[in-house]
Write a structure and sequence with these properties.
By secondary structure, this protein is of the alpha+beta class. It has five helices and five strands, in the order ααββαββααβ. The chain has two domains: 70 residues, 2-Layer Sandwich (Histidine-containing Protein, Chain: A); 47 residues, Roll (Membrane-bound Lytic Murein Transglycosylase D, Chain A), CATH 3.10.350.
Length: 129
């Protein structure tokens, strides 16, 4: 029989990925065993965040035979983000895409200068491959 505590430890980074976006509406709705699989139910605010959580899952185990991720997307495809003091577009991209080098695509999608986005300006982070 599968050990729930061991599986929760194995997949803790997936739960952390959900928690990392709590300020945007992500939340864990439940963690339980279904037979030999650990099931994580969560709500995420956008397809962008959903993709980031799936990336975390595949980083633990590309096949994840002992894990089931049940995600509900509460918003749309894009993720709104309001620029804060000290933000760089590359840092925002690192958080939401796992790659800082996505900033040119985000800048283009928002028709902004990546080096000059005013504090308080809201951009839409698109789904990127």
């Amino acid at each position: 029989m599968a050990d729930q505590a061991a599986l929760q430890q194995k997949y803790s980074s997936v739960g952390q990925a959900v928690s990392d976006f709590a300020e945007y509406g992500s939340k864990i709705d439940g963690i339980f065993m279904d037979g030999e699989k650990l099931v994580l139910k969560a709500t995420v605010p956008s397809k962008v965040v959903e993709n980031r959580v799936w990336d975390a899952t595949k980083a633990v185990d590309p096949n994840y035979p002992d894990f089931e991720l049940q995600l509900t997307v509460s918003g749309g495809d894009t993720q709104p983000y309001t620029i804060k003091s000290g933000d760089t577009l590359s840092a925002v991209c690192q958080k939401f895409y796992g790659h800082a080098n996505k900033y040119p695509e985000v800048a283009k999608a928002n028709n902004v200068d990546a080096n000059n986005i005013p504090v308080g300006h809201t951009i839409q982070l698109p789904v990127l491959s």
